[in-house]
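Let us practice reading a record.
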Amino acid sequence: QVQLVESGGGLVQPGGSLRLSCAASGSIYSIDAMGWYRQAPGKQRELVADITSGGTTNSADSAKGRFTISRDNSKNTVYLQMNSLKPEDTAVYYCNLFGRGGNGLARRRNYWGQGTQVTVSS
């Protein structure tokens, strides 16, 4: 099994910053990419940003210029630095890993963390 443990969420005022962390552990065979998604009440889950094992990043337009994703491959950990936060960033943020678990014979698949709440409010 692959486990993803998120941390760093919380309540912050508009214009503030938060740093999310997600550590992957368990029976990991290979990781293609790790990233962050978010889901606000009444909305679909959406990509915030992701990063491949080679360091290529991809981010939503809403995140560009404010959020930075980074990764420590040696620790199987991904980070999301969020600056200039806005009330519309309020959501549950989910860590995602796309890769293979176990002995590597299974297909690549998505693994998800349990989510961490980010609330931006004055």
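A brief commentary: DSSP finds no helices and eleven strands in the chain.
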